[in-house]
Amino acid sequence: MLDAGAIGHLAEWERETRSSIIFRSANGATAEDINGKIYLDMTSCSGASPLGSNNTLFKSRLAQAMKHEPDILPSPVSEQRRILAAKIMEMLPSNPRVFFLRTGSCATEAAVRIARHRTGRPVILTAGFHGWHDIFQQSPWSDNPPANDRHVQDFQYDLDILEQQLSENEGEVAGIFFTPEPTAFSPELLQEISRMARLHGVLLMVDEVLCGLRYAKGGYCRKHGVEADLITLAKGIAQGVGLSVVAGTADAMAGADRAYLGNTYLRENRAFVAGNLTQDIFEEAEIVARLAEIGSALKTQFQTSFERSGIPARILGSDTMFDIVLPSQRHGRAFAQRCLQHGIYTGYPGKYMSNASMDDIFFSALLPALERALADYRKDEDMAAQITDASIVEYFAQAFRATEKACLSNKHHWA
Protein backbone atom coordinates (compact mmCIF):
# COMPACT_ATOMS: atom_id res chain seq x y z
CA MET A 1 0.00 0.00 0.00
CA LEU A 2 1.11 3.53 -0.72
CA ASP A 3 1.72 5.94 2.12
CA ALA A 4 -1.45 8.08 2.25
CA GLY A 5 0.65 11.09 3.12
CA ALA A 6 2.55 10.74 -0.13
CA ILE A 7 -0.55 10.89 -2.31
CA GLY A 8 -1.56 14.29 -3.72
CA HIS A 9 -4.96 15.41 -2.47
CA LEU A 10 -7.64 16.12 -5.09
CA ALA A 11 -10.62 17.25 -3.06
CA GLU A 12 -13.18 17.13 -5.86
CA TRP A 13 -12.58 13.43 -6.57
CA GLU A 14 -11.26 12.18 -3.25
CA ARG A 15 -14.30 13.20 -1.24
CA GLU A 16 -16.28 10.55 -3.13
CA THR A 17 -16.15 6.78 -2.77
CA ARG A 18 -14.19 6.28 -5.99
CA SER A 19 -11.28 8.27 -4.51
CA SER A 20 -10.03 5.32 -2.50
CA ILE A 21 -9.21 3.53 -5.77
CA ILE A 22 -5.68 4.09 -7.04
CA PHE A 23 -5.21 2.66 -10.51
CA ARG A 24 -1.91 1.37 -11.89
CA SER A 25 -2.92 -0.06 -15.27
CA ALA A 26 -5.76 -0.22 -17.78
CA ASN A 27 -6.57 -2.14 -20.93
CA GLY A 28 -9.68 -1.75 -23.07
CA ALA A 29 -12.58 -1.13 -20.71
CA THR A 30 -10.91 -2.67 -17.66
CA ALA A 31 -8.49 -1.22 -15.13
CA GLU A 32 -6.46 -2.65 -12.25
CA ASP A 33 -5.82 -0.89 -8.95
CA ILE A 34 -2.67 -1.10 -6.82
CA ASN A 35 -4.16 -4.02 -4.87
CA GLY A 36 -4.76 -6.08 -8.00
CA LYS A 37 -8.53 -5.58 -8.10
CA ILE A 38 -10.03 -5.38 -11.59
CA TYR A 39 -12.70 -2.79 -12.47
CA LEU A 40 -14.96 -2.58 -15.50
CA ASP A 41 -14.98 1.06 -16.60
CA MET A 42 -18.44 2.49 -17.39
CA THR A 43 -17.06 5.99 -18.02
CA SER A 44 -14.76 5.45 -21.02
CA CYS A 45 -12.15 7.36 -18.99
CA SER A 46 -14.66 10.20 -18.56
CA GLY A 47 -15.27 10.09 -22.30
CA ALA A 48 -11.62 10.66 -23.23
CA SER A 49 -10.94 7.14 -24.52
CA PRO A 50 -13.53 6.13 -27.16
CA LEU A 51 -11.20 3.40 -28.45
CA GLY A 52 -10.58 1.99 -24.97
CA SER A 53 -7.47 2.25 -22.83
CA ASN A 54 -4.13 1.09 -24.21
CA ASN A 55 -5.56 0.55 -27.69
CA THR A 56 -3.03 -1.54 -29.60
CA LEU A 57 -3.72 -0.10 -33.05
CA PHE A 58 -3.55 3.50 -31.87
CA LYS A 59 -0.42 2.96 -29.78
CA SER A 60 1.45 1.15 -32.53
CA ARG A 61 0.58 3.79 -35.12
CA LEU A 62 1.52 6.59 -32.73
CA ALA A 63 4.85 4.95 -31.90
CA GLN A 64 5.61 4.45 -35.59
CA ALA A 65 4.64 8.02 -36.49
CA MET A 66 6.72 9.53 -33.69
CA LYS A 67 9.84 7.90 -35.09
CA HIS A 68 9.62 10.50 -37.83
CA GLU A 69 7.69 13.37 -36.23
CA PRO A 70 9.20 15.95 -33.81
CA ASP A 71 7.90 15.97 -30.25
CA ILE A 72 7.76 19.76 -30.00
CA LEU A 73 8.23 22.66 -32.40
CA PRO A 74 9.15 26.35 -32.07
CA SER A 75 5.67 27.43 -33.21
CA PRO A 76 2.13 26.09 -32.66
CA VAL A 77 1.63 26.21 -36.43
CA SER A 78 2.61 22.81 -37.80
CA GLU A 79 1.84 20.46 -40.66
CA GLN A 80 0.06 18.01 -38.36
CA ARG A 81 -2.06 20.83 -36.93
CA ARG A 82 -3.11 21.93 -40.43
CA ILE A 83 -4.06 18.35 -41.36
CA LEU A 84 -6.18 17.95 -38.23
CA ALA A 85 -7.80 21.34 -38.75
CA ALA A 86 -8.91 20.20 -42.22
CA LYS A 87 -10.46 17.04 -40.73
CA ILE A 88 -12.39 19.06 -38.12
CA MET A 89 -13.60 21.46 -40.82
CA GLU A 90 -14.83 18.51 -42.88
CA MET A 91 -16.67 17.23 -39.81
CA LEU A 92 -18.22 20.64 -39.12
CA PRO A 93 -18.65 22.33 -42.51
CA SER A 94 -20.73 25.17 -41.05
CA ASN A 95 -17.86 26.04 -38.70
CA PRO A 96 -14.85 26.32 -41.02
CA ARG A 97 -12.44 28.06 -38.66
CA VAL A 98 -10.84 26.14 -35.81
CA PHE A 99 -8.57 27.00 -32.91
CA PHE A 100 -6.89 24.28 -30.85
CA LEU A 101 -6.32 24.22 -27.10
CA ARG A 102 -5.45 21.55 -24.54
CA THR A 103 -8.54 20.74 -22.44
CA GLY A 104 -12.30 21.04 -22.61
CA SER A 105 -12.23 23.79 -19.99
CA CYS A 106 -9.64 25.68 -22.04
CA ALA A 107 -11.90 25.45 -25.08
CA THR A 108 -15.03 26.66 -23.30
CA GLU A 109 -13.27 29.63 -21.73
CA ALA A 110 -11.67 30.46 -25.07
CA ALA A 111 -15.12 30.36 -26.70
CA VAL A 112 -16.34 32.92 -24.18
CA ARG A 113 -13.37 35.17 -24.85
CA ILE A 114 -13.90 34.89 -28.60
CA ALA A 115 -17.61 35.71 -28.25
CA ARG A 116 -16.89 38.74 -26.08
CA HIS A 117 -14.26 40.07 -28.45
CA ARG A 118 -16.50 39.49 -31.47
CA THR A 119 -19.49 41.30 -29.98
CA GLY A 120 -17.90 43.76 -27.56
CA ARG A 121 -20.39 42.58 -24.91
CA PRO A 122 -19.63 40.97 -21.54
CA VAL A 123 -22.61 38.78 -20.59
CA ILE A 124 -22.78 35.03 -21.21
CA LEU A 125 -26.06 33.20 -20.58
CA THR A 126 -25.33 29.56 -19.94
CA ALA A 127 -26.85 26.15 -19.24
CA GLY A 128 -24.96 22.99 -18.38
CA PHE A 129 -21.46 22.08 -17.27
CA HIS A 130 -18.60 23.88 -19.03
CA GLY A 131 -15.59 22.92 -16.92
CA TRP A 132 -13.66 23.87 -13.81
CA HIS A 133 -12.54 27.42 -14.63
CA ASP A 134 -13.76 30.21 -12.38
CA ILE A 135 -16.13 31.77 -14.90
CA PHE A 136 -18.19 28.58 -14.99
CA GLN A 137 -17.98 27.65 -11.32
CA GLN A 138 -20.73 30.13 -10.48
CA SER A 139 -24.16 29.46 -9.02
CA PRO A 140 -25.72 26.89 -9.34
CA TRP A 141 -22.49 24.94 -9.95
CA SER A 142 -20.86 26.43 -6.87
CA ASP A 143 -22.84 27.24 -3.72
CA ASN A 144 -20.64 30.11 -2.66
CA PRO A 145 -18.16 31.13 -5.38
CA PRO A 146 -15.39 33.33 -3.93
CA ALA A 147 -15.31 35.29 -7.19
CA ASN A 148 -18.94 35.97 -8.08
CA ASP A 149 -19.15 36.84 -11.77
CA ARG A 150 -22.37 38.69 -12.57
CA HIS A 151 -21.53 38.51 -16.28
CA VAL A 152 -22.06 34.73 -16.33
CA GLN A 153 -25.71 33.85 -15.68
CA ASP A 154 -27.10 30.31 -15.70
CA PHE A 155 -30.64 29.80 -17.01
CA GLN A 156 -30.63 26.12 -15.94
CA TYR A 157 -32.19 24.90 -19.23
CA ASP A 158 -35.32 26.94 -18.43
CA LEU A 159 -36.56 28.98 -21.41
CA ASP A 160 -38.55 31.38 -19.23
CA ILE A 161 -35.43 32.24 -17.23
CA LEU A 162 -33.46 32.62 -20.47
CA GLU A 163 -36.05 35.00 -21.90
CA GLN A 164 -35.96 37.06 -18.71
CA GLN A 165 -32.15 37.20 -18.75
CA LEU A 166 -32.12 38.27 -22.39
CA SER A 167 -34.56 41.06 -21.58
CA GLU A 168 -32.76 42.23 -18.44
CA ASN A 169 -29.37 42.25 -20.21
CA GLU A 170 -30.53 43.65 -23.55
CA GLY A 171 -27.57 44.93 -25.53
CA GLU A 172 -25.05 43.34 -23.13
CA VAL A 173 -25.26 39.65 -24.05
CA ALA A 174 -22.40 38.21 -26.11
CA GLY A 175 -23.80 34.71 -26.42
CA ILE A 176 -25.90 31.84 -25.15
CA PHE A 177 -23.71 28.87 -24.17
CA PHE A 178 -25.56 25.53 -24.10
CA THR A 179 -24.39 22.01 -23.25
CA PRO A 180 -26.57 19.31 -24.84
CA GLU A 181 -27.74 16.65 -22.41
CA PRO A 182 -29.53 14.03 -24.55
CA THR A 183 -30.59 12.19 -21.41
CA ALA A 184 -32.80 15.04 -20.29
CA PHE A 185 -33.58 17.39 -23.15
CA SER A 186 -34.94 17.02 -26.65
CA PRO A 187 -33.20 18.52 -29.70
CA GLU A 188 -36.13 20.95 -29.95
CA LEU A 189 -34.80 22.76 -26.87
CA LEU A 190 -31.58 23.70 -28.65
CA GLN A 191 -33.52 24.57 -31.78
CA GLU A 192 -35.66 27.00 -29.76
CA ILE A 193 -32.60 28.47 -28.07
CA SER A 194 -31.08 28.96 -31.52
CA ARG A 195 -34.20 30.86 -32.58
CA MET A 196 -33.99 33.04 -29.47
CA ALA A 197 -30.32 33.77 -30.09
CA ARG A 198 -31.05 34.95 -33.64
CA LEU A 199 -34.03 37.01 -32.48
CA HIS A 200 -31.92 38.84 -29.88
CA GLY A 201 -28.83 39.16 -32.06
CA VAL A 202 -26.48 37.13 -29.84
CA LEU A 203 -24.10 34.30 -30.65
CA LEU A 204 -25.16 30.67 -30.21
CA MET A 205 -22.39 28.69 -28.52
CA VAL A 206 -22.71 24.92 -28.06
CA ASP A 207 -20.50 22.91 -25.74
CA GLU A 208 -19.99 19.51 -27.39
CA VAL A 209 -16.87 18.69 -25.37
CA LEU A 210 -18.45 15.46 -24.15
CA CYS A 211 -20.94 14.53 -26.86
CA GLY A 212 -19.47 15.90 -30.08
CA LEU A 213 -17.37 12.93 -31.12
CA ARG A 214 -19.64 10.15 -29.85
CA TYR A 215 -23.30 11.25 -30.09
CA ALA A 216 -23.39 11.18 -33.88
CA LYS A 217 -21.05 11.61 -36.81
CA GLY A 218 -20.60 15.35 -37.11
CA GLY A 219 -21.84 15.98 -33.59
CA TYR A 220 -25.05 17.07 -31.91
CA CYS A 221 -25.68 20.31 -33.79
CA ARG A 222 -25.13 18.81 -37.21
CA LYS A 223 -27.32 15.81 -36.37
CA HIS A 224 -30.24 18.08 -35.43
CA GLY A 225 -29.83 20.80 -38.02
CA VAL A 226 -28.67 23.58 -35.70
CA GLU A 227 -26.08 26.04 -36.98
CA ALA A 228 -24.10 27.28 -34.01
CA ASP A 229 -21.71 30.22 -34.18
CA LEU A 230 -19.17 28.48 -31.93
CA ILE A 231 -18.79 24.78 -31.01
CA THR A 232 -16.34 23.32 -28.49
CA LEU A 233 -14.98 19.77 -28.81
CA ALA A 234 -12.49 17.77 -26.78
CA LYS A 235 -13.14 14.25 -25.54
CA GLY A 236 -12.15 11.73 -28.15
CA ILE A 237 -10.23 14.00 -30.48
CA ALA A 238 -6.85 12.47 -29.68
CA GLN A 239 -7.62 9.24 -27.75
CA GLY A 240 -6.76 10.51 -24.28
CA VAL A 241 -4.05 12.96 -25.31
CA GLY A 242 -4.93 16.49 -24.20
CA LEU A 243 -6.39 18.39 -27.16
CA SER A 244 -9.51 20.50 -27.64
CA VAL A 245 -11.06 22.72 -30.30
CA VAL A 246 -13.15 25.82 -30.73
CA ALA A 247 -14.77 25.63 -34.16
CA GLY A 248 -16.69 28.60 -35.46
CA THR A 249 -18.14 30.48 -38.36
CA ALA A 250 -15.84 32.91 -40.09
CA ASP A 251 -17.86 35.77 -38.62
CA ALA A 252 -17.81 34.55 -35.01
CA MET A 253 -14.14 33.59 -35.15
CA ALA A 254 -13.24 37.17 -36.04
CA GLY A 255 -13.27 37.46 -32.25
CA ALA A 256 -10.31 35.06 -32.11
CA ASP A 257 -8.31 37.45 -34.27
CA ARG A 258 -8.77 40.16 -31.63
CA ALA A 259 -8.31 38.03 -28.50
CA TYR A 260 -5.14 36.70 -26.90
CA LEU A 261 -5.31 32.91 -26.95
CA GLY A 262 -1.65 31.99 -26.55
CA ASN A 263 -0.81 28.49 -25.40
CA THR A 264 2.78 27.29 -24.98
CA TYR A 265 2.01 23.58 -25.15
CA LEU A 266 0.26 23.73 -28.51
CA ARG A 267 3.82 23.43 -29.76
CA GLU A 268 3.66 19.78 -28.69
CA ASN A 269 3.41 18.08 -32.06
CA ARG A 270 2.57 14.68 -30.56
CA ALA A 271 -0.97 15.82 -29.66
CA PHE A 272 -1.75 16.66 -33.28
CA VAL A 273 -0.22 13.41 -34.51
CA ALA A 274 -2.43 11.57 -32.01
CA GLY A 275 -5.44 13.58 -33.14
CA ASN A 276 -4.94 12.72 -36.79
CA LEU A 277 -4.39 9.03 -36.05
CA THR A 278 -7.50 8.92 -33.85
CA GLN A 279 -9.68 10.52 -36.50
CA ASP A 280 -8.30 8.14 -39.12
CA ILE A 281 -9.26 5.17 -36.94
CA PHE A 282 -12.70 6.72 -36.36
CA GLU A 283 -13.26 6.71 -40.13
CA GLU A 284 -11.69 3.34 -40.93
CA ALA A 285 -13.48 1.41 -38.17
CA GLU A 286 -16.71 3.47 -38.16
CA ILE A 287 -16.20 4.11 -34.45
CA VAL A 288 -19.29 6.27 -33.90
CA ALA A 289 -21.53 3.50 -35.22
CA ARG A 290 -19.67 0.95 -33.10
CA LEU A 291 -20.07 3.08 -29.98
CA ALA A 292 -23.81 3.19 -30.59
CA GLU A 293 -24.03 -0.57 -31.19
CA ILE A 294 -21.98 -1.41 -28.11
CA GLY A 295 -23.78 1.23 -26.04
CA SER A 296 -27.13 -0.29 -26.97
CA ALA A 297 -25.90 -3.67 -25.71
CA LEU A 298 -24.66 -2.02 -22.51
CA LYS A 299 -28.03 -0.40 -21.89
CA THR A 300 -29.79 -3.70 -22.53
CA GLN A 301 -27.50 -5.49 -20.08
CA PHE A 302 -28.30 -3.05 -17.29
CA GLN A 303 -32.02 -2.93 -18.09
CA THR A 304 -32.32 -6.72 -18.18
CA SER A 305 -30.43 -7.09 -14.90
CA PHE A 306 -32.59 -4.49 -13.17
CA GLU A 307 -35.78 -6.19 -14.37
CA ARG A 308 -34.56 -9.66 -13.46
CA SER A 309 -33.68 -8.45 -9.96
CA GLY A 310 -36.97 -6.59 -9.52
CA ILE A 311 -35.18 -3.29 -8.90
CA PRO A 312 -36.87 -0.02 -9.91
CA ALA A 313 -34.54 1.93 -12.22
CA ARG A 314 -34.75 4.03 -15.37
CA ILE A 315 -32.13 4.15 -18.11
CA LEU A 316 -32.29 7.43 -20.00
CA GLY A 317 -30.26 8.83 -22.88
CA SER A 318 -28.71 7.88 -26.19
CA ASP A 319 -26.93 4.61 -26.86
CA THR A 320 -23.47 6.18 -26.70
CA MET A 321 -24.04 8.15 -23.47
CA PHE A 322 -26.77 7.47 -20.95
CA ASP A 323 -27.72 7.85 -17.29
CA ILE A 324 -29.26 5.45 -14.77
CA VAL A 325 -31.83 6.96 -12.42
CA LEU A 326 -32.81 5.33 -9.12
CA PRO A 327 -35.75 6.35 -6.87
CA SER A 328 -33.67 8.81 -4.83
CA GLN A 329 -30.15 10.15 -4.39
CA ARG A 330 -29.75 7.78 -1.43
CA HIS A 331 -30.68 4.81 -3.60
CA GLY A 332 -28.36 6.02 -6.34
CA ARG A 333 -25.36 6.42 -4.05
CA ALA A 334 -25.98 2.97 -2.55
CA PHE A 335 -26.17 1.45 -6.03
CA ALA A 336 -22.89 3.10 -7.10
CA GLN A 337 -21.19 1.93 -3.91
CA ARG A 338 -22.27 -1.67 -4.49
CA CYS A 339 -21.07 -1.47 -8.09
CA LEU A 340 -17.65 -0.29 -6.97
CA GLN A 341 -17.43 -3.05 -4.39
CA HIS A 342 -18.04 -5.59 -7.13
CA GLY A 343 -15.66 -4.05 -9.65
CA ILE A 344 -17.95 -1.84 -11.75
CA TYR A 345 -16.47 1.63 -11.99
CA THR A 346 -19.26 4.22 -11.93
CA GLY A 347 -20.77 6.97 -9.81
CA TYR A 348 -24.08 8.66 -9.08
CA PRO A 349 -25.02 10.83 -10.85
CA GLY A 350 -22.89 9.36 -13.58
CA LYS A 351 -22.65 9.18 -17.36
CA TYR A 352 -22.31 5.68 -18.84
CA MET A 353 -20.27 5.75 -22.04
CA SER A 354 -19.39 2.86 -24.31
CA ASN A 355 -16.01 2.42 -25.89
CA ALA A 356 -14.97 0.38 -28.88
CA SER A 357 -13.10 -2.21 -26.81
CA MET A 358 -16.19 -3.52 -24.99
CA ASP A 359 -16.30 -7.04 -26.42
CA ASP A 360 -17.84 -10.40 -25.49
CA ILE A 361 -15.22 -10.94 -22.77
CA PHE A 362 -16.13 -7.59 -21.23
CA PHE A 363 -19.86 -8.36 -21.22
CA SER A 364 -19.31 -11.86 -19.85
CA ALA A 365 -17.46 -10.27 -16.91
CA LEU A 366 -20.03 -7.50 -16.45
CA LEU A 367 -23.06 -9.79 -16.07
CA PRO A 368 -22.02 -11.66 -12.89
CA ALA A 369 -20.46 -8.55 -11.35
CA LEU A 370 -23.67 -6.60 -11.90
CA GLU A 371 -25.83 -9.42 -10.55
CA ARG A 372 -23.76 -9.54 -7.35
CA ALA A 373 -23.93 -5.76 -6.97
CA LEU A 374 -27.70 -5.75 -7.45
CA ALA A 375 -28.19 -8.62 -5.01
CA ASP A 376 -26.36 -6.69 -2.28
CA TYR A 377 -28.17 -3.46 -3.19
CA ARG A 378 -31.53 -5.23 -3.03
CA LYS A 379 -30.81 -6.58 0.46
CA ASP A 380 -29.98 -3.14 1.86
CA GLU A 381 -32.40 -0.75 0.14
CA ASP A 382 -36.15 -0.19 0.08
CA MET A 383 -37.46 -1.92 -3.05
CA ALA A 384 -40.95 -0.45 -2.54
CA ALA A 385 -39.67 2.96 -3.62
CA GLN A 386 -40.50 3.65 -7.26
CA ILE A 387 -39.16 5.94 -9.97
CA THR A 388 -41.42 9.00 -10.11
CA ASP A 389 -41.28 12.34 -11.86
CA ALA A 390 -39.80 13.66 -8.62
CA SER A 391 -36.97 11.11 -8.93
CA ILE A 392 -36.18 12.34 -12.42
CA VAL A 393 -36.37 16.00 -11.39
CA GLU A 394 -34.04 15.36 -8.44
CA TYR A 395 -31.52 13.58 -10.66
CA PHE A 396 -31.56 16.24 -13.38
CA ALA A 397 -31.18 18.98 -10.79
CA GLN A 398 -28.14 17.25 -9.32
CA ALA A 399 -26.53 16.16 -12.58
CA PHE A 400 -27.34 19.09 -14.87
CA ARG A 401 -28.51 21.87 -12.49
CA ALA A 402 -31.81 22.02 -14.36
CA THR A 403 -34.95 23.57 -12.88
CA GLU A 404 -38.03 21.49 -12.18
CA LYS A 405 -39.90 23.32 -14.92
CA ALA A 406 -37.15 22.64 -17.45
CA CYS A 407 -37.23 18.94 -16.56
CA LEU A 408 -40.99 18.55 -16.74
CA SER A 409 -41.33 20.59 -19.93
CA ASN A 410 -39.12 17.95 -21.57
CA LYS A 411 -41.01 15.00 -20.13
CA HIS A 412 -42.19 14.06 -23.62
CA HIS A 413 -38.50 13.36 -24.38
CA TRP A 414 -37.37 11.36 -21.36
CA ALA A 415 -40.68 9.64 -20.55
UniProtKB/TrEMBL annotation:
<keyword id="KW-0663">Pyridoxal phosphate</keyword>
<dbReference type="InterPro" id="IPR005814">
    <property type="entry name" value="Aminotrans_3"/>
</dbReference>
<keyword id="KW-0032">Aminotransferase</keyword>
<comment type="similarity">
    <text>Belongs to the class-III pyridoxal-phosphate-dependent aminotransferase family.</text>
</comment>
<dbReference type="InterPro" id="IPR015424">
    <property type="entry name" value="PyrdxlP-dep_Trfase"/>
</dbReference>
<dbReference type="GO" id="GO:0008483">
    <property type="term" value="F:transaminase activity"/>
</dbReference>
<dbReference type="Pfam" id="PF00202">
    <property type="entry name" value="Aminotran_3"/>
</dbReference>
<dbReference type="InterPro" id="IPR015422">
    <property type="entry name" value="PyrdxlP-dep_Trfase_small"/>
</dbReference>
<keyword id="KW-0808">Transferase</keyword>
<dbReference type="InterPro" id="IPR015421">
    <property type="entry name" value="PyrdxlP-dep_Trfase_major"/>
</dbReference>
<protein>
    <submittedName>
        <fullName>Glutamate-1-semialdehyde aminotransferase</fullName>
    </submittedName>
</protein>
